[in-house]
Design brief:
The complex is a heterodimer of chains A (112) and B (118). Chain A has no helices and eleven strands. Chain A has 112 residues and is an all-beta fold. With 118 residues, chain B is an all-beta fold. In chain B, 0% of the residues lie in helices and 51% in strands. In chain B, the strands form two sheets. In chain B, strands 2, 4, 5, 6, 9, 10 and 11 form a seven-stranded mixed beta sheet that branches. In chain B, strand 5 and strand 6 form a beta hairpin. The termini of chain B are far apart. Classes of the chains: A mainly beta (112), B mainly beta (118). Chains A and B meet through strand 4 and strand 5 of A and strand 9 and strand 10 of B.
Chain lengths: 112, 118
């Protein structure tokens, strides 16, 4: 089955800095890679996703890059703000089966 | 759109009792719902996939007789933790998938249920 590794487990940055979270996956057939943000005690919320026919996608301060050859994808957050503090999960799934495999999560702390 | 609710949001029960958690898709039909378990500071662990009108598919290591899942309609799935024990204390989250073209593969999560077994 699919295996998703996520690093780092904890990331601490100063407000205004950039933050990068990296994930690798094992199943080359995976073709959908969502990123979720989960605030303490709340539900995960999709913040951005990318499909395997795209190398990069951007939405305001958030961007995701995908390298299919190396089987890794990354989340980039620029100009971080304290409200960006949360746990971020990457996931990978195969379109047909849909069920995503989640990474272990990255706790992002943005210091004001 | 694509709102998923869960009830209750939290529950405290005595060891040995059973607890039912409901997951509803409020504004769409969900042929498939997923149940996850999340321990503090850990990732989402898929417990089972719930399909409307059929038996749930459980992940390896999840006891189907302990975690009963029923998906009786296109908008409701229930998870019953039977004979709960303290080690079952966790955050249980459901999710549902829509089939609209604008949300390919996206799943929407419920707000979660915090279960504490004394």
């Amino acid at each position: 089955g699919e295996n998703v590794e996520q690093h780092p487990s904890t990331l601490s940055v100063q407000e205004g800095d950039s933050a990068v979270i990296k994930c690798t996956y094992s199943d080359s057939a995976s073709n959908y890679f969502p990123w979720y943000k989960q605030e303490l005690g709340k539900r995960p919320q999709l913040i951005i996703d990318i499909r395997s026919n795209v190398g990069e996608k951007k939405d305001q301060r958030i961007a995701v890059t995908l390298n299919k050859t190396a089987k890794h994808f990354s989340l980039h957050i620029t100009e971080t703000q304290p409200e960006d503090s949360a746990v971020y999960f990457c996931a990978a799934s195969l379109g047909g089966s849909y069920i995503p495999t989640f990474g272990r999560g990255t706790s992002l702390i943005v210091h004001p | 759109g694509a709102v998923v609710s869960q009830h209750p949001s939290w529950v405290i029960c005595k060891s040995g009792t059973s607890v039912k958690i409901e997951c509803r898709s409020l504004d769409f039909q969900a042929t498939t719902m997923f149940w996850y378990r999340q321990f503090p500071k850990q990732s989402l662990m898929l417990m089972a996939t719930s399909n409307e009108g059929s038996k749930a598919t459980y992940e390896q290591g999840v006891e189907k007789d302990k975690f009963l899942i029923n998906h009786a309609s296109l908008t409701l799935s229930t998870l019953t933790v039977t004979s709960a024990h303290p080690e079952d204390s966790s955050f249980y989250i459901c999710s549902a998938k829509t089939t609209t073209s604008g949300s390919w593969n996206e799943q929407f999560f419920g707000p979660g249920t915090r279960l504490t077994v004394l």
